[in-house]
C-alpha cells in the first residue's frame, strides 16, 4: 500500500542506459501527474554493469540495485518487469518474467527474430490466462498528435486511405568517426536502422490506419562498414560521438545503416518507407503523411505537438492544410499536463505509456501494443530483410 492507502505495483527494471533513463523518468512522472488506481514503485533496477545501474538508481530514485536479472524477477516485491536491454536478451528475460507471473513491459522491437517474437507472444498468451499482462514499448503511439491522427482516420475524416508516406530520419551515424555501439551489432540489435527506428514507423502506420502491411519490396545499405570502438570500451555509447586518434581499434558494423521499402496495406493503400541514421540535418524526424479520399494528415516528430489535417470536403476556395496545435485539454493525455500551448516533449510519450499500462493492469484489460502487435511488426522487418537480400523481390507478409 502507498501512504494514501492506494495499492502499489512493484517495478523491477532491467537496463539503465538511454531507455532505462527514459523509463525511469516516466515511472516517476506518471505518479506525479496522473491519478492512478495503483501506484508504481521503483523497487529495483538491474543490468550487466552494476556501477552504471547504481548511477541510474541514484539519479532516478530506484530503491535497490540487483546485478542478476533472474534474482530481480524472483523478488516478491516485483510485480512488473520492465525490459530496457538490447534486443538479444528480450526473449529470455521477458519469457522468464511471464513464467514467474510478472507483468512485462518490453522495449521495442519486441525481439531480434520472428522466432523469438513468436515464443514471446506464446508465453504472453499463456500468462494472460493467469491475469498476467504484457506490452511492447512502441512509445510514439502515445504522442497526443498520433492518437488524434488515429482517431480522425477511425472516424472516417480522411475517408479511404490510399497513400502512406513514412520516414524515420536521424543523422547520428553520418560522421564515420561516430563510434561502434550495440546498435550496430546484428547479434545484439537484430538489425540496424530497420529495427531500431523503422520498426516505429511500421508500428505507427499500422496503428494510425488500423490496417496491416501485407507485402514489401526493399533495399538496404551499410554505408560505413567499420567504425572506431568507443574509448572506454564499455560498448554502451549513447547516440553519436566522435572518436579519433592514431591506431584507434576498429569494429565491424554488421547491420544496415538505411532501409527503404515499398509496401501495400490491407485496405489497398500504397506506401513508401524510409529509415536511416544518415539523414544529414534530421535529428529525430518521424514523418508520416497519409492521403485519403476525403482528406489527409501529416505529422513530423520534430514538431510533435502539431498535426496537419486537410479536409477535402471543405469549400475548395478556402480548403487547405490546417495546423492543429494538439495541446488542448480535449486532446489525448493533455489535460493532465499544462495549459494550452505549453508544449509536451519526447519524454511524455513514455509517461503516457506507463499510465495506460498501469490502468490496464488495474482494470484487468490487455494493454496495447501487445506482444502479438510486436510480432506483426517483426514479420514486416523480416520480410524487408528477405526482400532486400533477393534484389528487392516482392515479399508477402504472413497475416
Ligand atoms: C536510437 O536511434 C533511438 O534511441 C531509438 O532506439 C529509439 O527507439 C528512438 O525513440 C530514438 O532513437
TrEMBL record:
It comes from the Bacteria. InterPro entries: Gfo/Idh/MocA-like_OxRdtase_N, Gfo/Idh/MocA_oxidrdct_glycsds, GFO_IDH_MocA-like_dom, NAD(P)-bd_dom_sf. GO terms for molecular function: nucleotide binding; oxidoreductase activity. The keyword Oxidoreductase applies. SUPFAM superfamilies: Glyceraldehyde-3-phosphate dehydrogenase-like, C-terminal domain, NAD(P)-binding Rossmann-fold domains. It holds the Pfam family GFO_IDH_MocA. Residues 148-297 form the GFO/IDH/MocA-like oxidoreductase domain. Residues 10-137 form the Gfo/Idh/MocA-like oxidoreductase N-terminal domain. The keyword Cell division does not apply. Keywords: Oxidoreductase. This is Gfo/Idh/MocA family oxidoreductase. It comes from Phytoactinopolyspora halotolerans.
